[in-house]
Amino acid sequence: MDTPITRAEHEEFSRRMEAENKRLTDEDKRQNHRIDELEETVRQIGDLTASVKELAVSMKNMTKVQEQQGNDIEELKNRDGEMWRKVTGYVITAVIGIAVGFIFTQIGM
């Protein structure tokens, strides 16, 4: 220590250091606040991603159910048409049988 500093120089240095420490503390608070907001945003994005995945699975299952229901409806439609064709076939067979029986009785067989 070649030359001692004066009291005024020391107080000026001390005041500048306190001001710099306050500035750094304020900056830390701002940065911490920004980090907290970013963490909350990341959490919300994660929640949204999980919800989208659940929605995709639900949609996939719903599509499978709708396809199955479509197949079941088509089968039921065909079954009704098939039944109607059978009934019509039986009625026509009966009418033809009655007609043939009537003709045979008229000719005496």
Describe the structure.
92% of the residues lie in helices and 0% in strands. It is mostly helical and 109 residues long. The termini are far apart.
Protein topology:
Elements: H1 7-106
In short:
The chain is mainly α and 109 residues long.
Keywords:
mainly alpha
Main sheet overview: none
Tell me the number of strands. Answer: 0
Count of helical stretches: 1
Provide the succession of SSEs.
H
Q: Characterize the overall form.
A: rod-shaped
- Global mean pLDDT: 91
Strand content: under 5%
Query: Oligomeric state of the chains?
Result: single chain
Poorly predicted regions? none
**Which structural category do the helix and sheet elements fall into?**
mainly alpha
